[in-house]
From TrEMBL:
InterPro entries: F420H2_quin_Rdtase, Split_barrel_FMN-bd. This is Deazaflavin-dependent oxidoreductase, nitroreductase family. The lineage of its organism: Bacteria, Bacillati, Actinomycetota, Actinomycetes, Pseudonocardiales. Pfam families: F420H2_quin_red (PF04075). GO terms for molecular function: oxidoreductase activity.
């Protein structure tokens, strides 16, 4: 995890601001399709019921979301203080924006 991501995770866990930060930022964990390694990264999200949408910022400079192309795959998120596992799929719209949708 790079320095910026460590800072964001630290803010999520901070006593004073953590509760506010956790409302819009979660930590996801997944296994890379090619490498088989487990990765963890903080992401912004929106949740409606059992659906979590992650808007990937600057998707052309990131690769993690590509693990969920096609039929997608499993992804674990920290939500409401607990780990939840769901099935994630990624989609790029006609403007180049990428959303990873997780069904819990």
């Amino acid at each position: 995890m790079n320095r910026v991501n460590r800072l964001i995770v630290g803010l999520r866990d901070a006593p004073l601001v953590g509760k506010l930060v956790r409302k819009g930022i979660t930590v996801v964990s997944y296994t890379g399709r090619k490498s088989g390694r487990t990765f963890t990264t903080p992401v912004g999200y929106q949740r409606k019921g059992d659906t979590v949408d992650i808007q990937v910022m600057m998707p052309d400079s990131k690769t993690w979301w590509r693990n969920f192309n096609g039929e997608g795959g499993p992804l674990t998120l920290e939500l409401d203080g607990a780990e939840r596992t769901g099935h994630a799929t990624s989609h790029r719209d006609d403007k180049g924006r990428v959303t990873v949708r997780v069904q819990l």
